[in-house]
Q: What sequence folds into this?
């Protein structure tokens, strides 16, 4: 598995990828899932990859092969959209070559990519390319893409990232998101590749490989867990009361424990059942007592 | 989709389920996914269901049908393990009846259950039953089960629940976990059924159906998001420095931006590339400058 995330905000782009690969739990290794196509002063394109490693490396190989001057490559594509199309075409080329054979071995054609960057004279852009070679672009309402094991790390991104979030805060968010993923999925692992692209710099200005020794990531890992437990502890526990003491509006939906009455799978209110307590509603003054 | 979670701690059991069902985004409805088999003074068994609603209701129907006195049911099973076996047998019965026909329509035989509760004279127990009818039991090291859309809500449970967590705090954790899931997956929806079982009570003592009006859940929803953003803001942003100013240990893994050199897909250090900054490591005294 893999976790890669890229976010696009007003100040630039942030890319973060793990490096774990596995073919079963006893065949764990590491590979970099980030590739940087850079022409300082002209363009920085960053490609993140998830899926079958043989497939993603085959796509990467195609994208980096020498080409005649007149052929489009990631180094001369006039726009980010053209670059995304090139990645999609490379995926389709690998599909033509490998998919049938893989199917004989019941191996899915499984790969996906995030491509982001900036080409001189244009804005930063961010794309996600699917295994069918088609692609979508990130927008202001959803300024990020994830590939691989995305769910554990999604809630924090949804809560904190907006287009105006400062770039370093976006990097921090990516690392918190990665920390949640690392904690819950063994197939995502250190070291991490973090690239922070400052808009209009047109070269790589901030990059770091974070391993177990990295003190900033250690600090995030430790602090985030501690503070989560702290704020969890500060939220009041529920309190319980007899339904009769609960405000009317709440009581309406309160009384039906979904008891199964023998012989009738449709659960129904059972007035002969013993009394129980229900969640106390804080008194806000608008409820009737 | 569905999200159901059940946790077993020293003080008892907590069950929480959503009620959304859907067959495509334009066919959204609600069904209760919790069923309570209660004989006050003798047993409380709670069953949570996820998967194809027709299948889970068929299983529920089998489990609630009248049976001859000498036949095992959830109402007379001598142990929770026997009860789990009964649920598994019901799943297999529905599989025998429906699976072949469903396969003709390319519908997966997809259902899973959580069964928890207590029978007089024994401890509380908690099981997860798979669509093959086999089952596993929760243990002290992993005192909870989730079915349905489980990933968004898993990190908070992993961080705060231990066997000694007080029951009301477990209920609060289940609701926070549900809140994260509701925020990220549209196919999980209110109202929620929350049942808190106090060990040795042998009857339902605390139950609540939480809908949009429920002020406790509203408070969790609002407070949790606010406090998350607050602690996120309090964690320091990364700071960046020239690699030459970064302590030696960090520098070792710092210098290799995974640049793709044209014609060579294997990324390699490019000493001619422009300089970039890397994550500053806080000085802990053990690094060499």
A:
């Amino acid at each position: 598995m893999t976790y890669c995330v890229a976010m696009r905000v007003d100040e630039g782009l942030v890319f973060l990828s793990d490096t774990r690969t596995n073919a079963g739990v006893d065949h764990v290794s590491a590979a970099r899932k980030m590739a940087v196509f850079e022409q300082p002063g002209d363009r920085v394109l960053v490609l993140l990859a998830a899926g079958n490693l043989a497939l993603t490396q085959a796509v990467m190989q195609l994208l980096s092969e020498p080409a005649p001057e007149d052929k489009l490559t990631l180094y001369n594509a006039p726009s980010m959209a053209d670059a995304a199309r090139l990645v999609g075409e490379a995926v389709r080329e690998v599909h033509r070559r490998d998919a049938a054979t893989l199917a004989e071995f019941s191996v899915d054609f499984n790969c996906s990519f995030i491509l982001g960057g900036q080409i001189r004279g244009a804005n930063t852009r961010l794309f996600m390319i699917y295994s069918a070679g088609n692609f979508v672009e990130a927008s202001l309402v959803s300024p990020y893409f994830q590939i691989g094991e995305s769910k554990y790390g999604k809630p924090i991104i949804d809560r904190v990232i907006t287009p105006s979030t400062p770039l370093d805060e976006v990097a921090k968010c990516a690392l918190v998101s990665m920390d949640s993923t690392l904690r819950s999925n063994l197939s995502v692992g250190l070291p991490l590749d973090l690239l922070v692209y400052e808009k209009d710099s047109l070269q790589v200005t901030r990059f770091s490989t974070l391993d177990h020794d990295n003190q900033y990531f250690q600090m995030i890992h430790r602090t985030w867990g501690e503070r989560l437990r702290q704020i969890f502890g500060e939220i009041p526990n529920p309190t319980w009361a007899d339904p009769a003491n609960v405000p009317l509006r709440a009581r309406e939906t309160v009384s039906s424990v979904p008891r199964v009455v023998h012989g009738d799978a449709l659960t129904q209110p059972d007035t002969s059942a013993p009394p129980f307590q229900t969640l106390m509603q804080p008194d806000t003054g608008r409820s009737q007592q």
